Amino acid sequence: MMSAREPGLRMLSIALLLGLLVSFPRPTPARGAVLQQSAGFLSLIISEIAWGGTAASPTHEWIELYNPGGLPVDLADWRLAADDGDPNILLDGTIPAGGFFLLERTDDKTVLDLTANLIFSSPTGLSDSGEVLRLFAPDDSLVDGANLDGGGWSAGSASPDFYSMERTDLVADGPGAWTSNDGIHRNGQDANGDPLNGTPKQFYASWPATPTSSYTFTSTYTPVFTDTPTPTPTHTPTLTGTATPTSTATPVAPAHLVISEFRARGWYGSDGSADEFVELFNPGGAAVNIGNWMIKKSGSCASSSGAAVSNLVTIPAGTILKAGQHYLLAAAGSYLASSSSTSPRPDLTFPASLADDGGLALVNSAGSLVDQVGMCSSTRYREGTTLPPLEGASDRSYERKPGGLTACYDTNNNSADFVLLTVASPLNKSSSITMCTGVLTSTPTRTPVPTRTPTPIPGVVVINEFLPHPRRDWNGDGTANTADEYIELMNMGTLSVNLRNWRLDNGAGTPAYTLPALTLLPRQIAIYYRSVTGLALSDGGGSVRLVKPNGTTADIYNYPPVAAADVTWCRLPDGKGVWAFACRPSPSSPNAPLGTTPTVPAPGWSEGAGGMFWLDSRSKWEVFVE
User: Among 39, 335, 399, 541, which is least packed by CB within 10 angstroms?
Assistant: First the structure.
């Protein structure tokens, strides 16, 4: 089990993989696909291998991939290949953020009750004596590997138990990165309908609890943020999840704000045509700044205006919508805006102008589409099967499921996501705050990690945190502006690294920033503000990349549009966790999840090795994270 592994093996495994990145050629010919953005080290991982097959058949081999990032990954032109040339699998499809991708050999009966994402053929299969597997990005760069030492398998077994080889953590390949399934934590059935000694499409018990971005959810699990996981009797958990391995009838909470209830006509007034309202809901776990967001409308299908779009109303700057909170917009001539209304008052009014059979969209301040709903098939704004238009004068409305105080379903199909209410029930910012199931707001506490003596390996520098939309003066120049955007690096190795001639870029064509000479000690953090780098971090989404002096990508993260100020993309836990849009800015300090207050020491304070010290050449605090 992972708790019995020596910590030094993990560190040694990283050194081993870094050497393999440059010493082993790719075993298959180069392809003609053009990589648009480089894939980062461990941006996808090989998370489980049933190299011995199953009790139903030793040829029923399967392999699982996992995406620890905050965005889905298009697997076109990715390749999973053995050094001996078999298997040699050209991947296809998409692996969602925080999700799994299951490859089954020969047919989809290998794991009987789970649908394979890809079926692969292999004349000889995975050798029971060991194989070297490598996962290549479209640019032929090595992203991950399994059994890279070339010996026997690190874990797992063939007959009689057929235990799968399970990844223990989000670390580089090596003996300490794998364990055999314990026969207790299991998921899926073999071709005979018997339980597998493995966990296809599900987290294994010894993985760490790591939250995913509040903007990226998957159909495989509901992320629950925790910073201090509770161990099981037989494991020391380091990655868990409230995983549901297969699709269920209850969708997970949307990864974004939603249009939760609306109508284009009601009962009030001469014919009800001006009795319009739109209700928004924040189903996530963090507050969102919706200032300068817009409600847009698209035209009627009854005319040629269906494709025409225009702005209905803009939400005032500085409007904050808390997690589980509603926001109500209503037409100025509606019942909700009238003095006789006994319903919740609108938070904002707009001129009545919605087409009865048109569409609606929620658009963020960067102009990106967040949610949409339509009432005819040729209107611009719609998702999947549209809703029938409301007719006549009545108090009806469309409400997002499950309804009541929450709006937690979004399958990108309007007819499946909304239900018709015979009596409308709009809510506003003053209404009760209610969270979707599985979405928690919390103030986590950090559990101290015991001091240990690691095995020295070459340093591994990663991007640890970045702030695209600052609202306060974080760089201390007396002005709060875009110059306060920053990128934070961390040395996850056990030896110092000189960052001279390393580069940072934003993937937007802006000249890369070349880092000056700076020795980053083990577990030390370095901060780089836009005022120094000139690198703009777009609110509309973009990329942050760290490049080594030899031109290879050390780390990269592609992030979606940013919808809140003074919230950072961060790794939780520091340095090794998956990305989440879930931290307060904490430049040059350990990442601080929302709800905590980062502590910054007073200038002039210092202590010995292992603590904070003043780095005169950069005039910023540096900290060590144990």
Answer: 541
